[in-house]
Amino acid sequence: MSVIAIQFEGPNAIAKWRELIGPTRPVQYALLDDPTAYHPPNAPNSPQTAASEIAFWFDGTFGQEE
């Protein structure tokens, strides 16, 4: 399974991305182990959530054991 992480920046970046991808849909987490399953794009709902997700994906610690 591949993960593509994208960081958008600029005025109203969250609102613009959420408008582009449409409403949030529940993900069937039981399918996460299925590499053929489609998982819809994700968007943060606030600047605080965005900061947390950016730190998770882009600070270099993802996938590393502590």
Please, could you describe this protein's structure?
With 66 residues, this protein is mostly helical. It has one domain (1-66). Helix content is 32%, strand content 0%. The longest helix has 12 residues, at 47-58.
Strand content: under 5%
Structural class: mainly alpha
The count of DSSP E runs of length 2 or more, i.e. the number of strands, is 0
The number of distinct structural domains comes to 1
Secondary-structure blueprint:
Layout: H1 13-21, H2 47-58
Features:
mainly alpha; globular
Describe what is shown at a glance:
This protein is mostly helical and 66 residues long. Helices cover 32% and strands 0% of the residues.
